[in-house]
Amino acid sequence: MQKEVWYFIDSGNCSPSFNMACDEALLLWQSEGTMKPTIRFYGWSPPTLSIGYFQTVEKEIDIDAVRAHQLGFVRRPTGGRAVLHDKELTYSVIVPESHPKMPTSVTEAYRVISTGLLEGFKELGLDAYFAIPKNEVELDELKKPRSSVCFDAPSWYELVVEGKKVAGSAQTRQKGVILQHGSILLDIDEDMLFSLFKFKNERIKVRMMEAFKNKAVSINRLTNKKVTIEDAKQAFKKGFEKGLEIELEPYILSEGQLKIIKEIEEEKYLRDEWNFRK
Prior knowledge:
The protein is α/β, with parallel strands linked by helices. The chain has one domain: BirA Bifunctional Protein, domain 2 (2-Layer Sandwich), CATH 3.30.930.10. The longest helix is centred in the middle third of the chain and has 18 residues.
């Protein structure tokens, strides 16, 4: 049986504002019916702290530390907690809510899309599995994140290897379209990560850091062979094709499309009114 063809975009390393504007534009074009469902891979230049749609910068983020590390900073259109995008592969999946592969439940759609990630980890030889709460206590834990840091604990259907979270994802639904994007960690600098957040005192910060090290892990701490970005791209491209039973066709954004992305950047993701809003 012939597989459905989706578009595949490899944007390479882009600015934080471009990355979020591009995902938003792809959602817009999907809603207008002018694009096939799309999977996009990208990186960040400079390394960037992205925060979730509902987070409060003043309360949670040490913006002076973000600037001291010369990091980019952007608010995502999706929920979830803050992510340091550095040594990682970032992905986004843009697909209509009405697509036959997509369940109506947010959680179940998350599982279907994340099957592509699961298969990608398997391509790298890692025994990944979905985090699913076993009882009411675990379910309660998932509902109450302990810190502002995304990888602090796995959520429903987040990917886990050896009991530790290896990918963090967030989803939004707008204009009849699902946008899910997330981080696949190749390496992580915990000291830099935890310097970017506000804590009541140093003792709490140290305790959170220790807990984080027990709950999150990067790919290169799990494998003997160093996985490069190119290795990851190859593995997760195959993973999405296998997991979603699709064929990915390379797609290059046109000059007209890039112009629209630039307009969204300037109107939204480059503005303090968006990034620092209360």
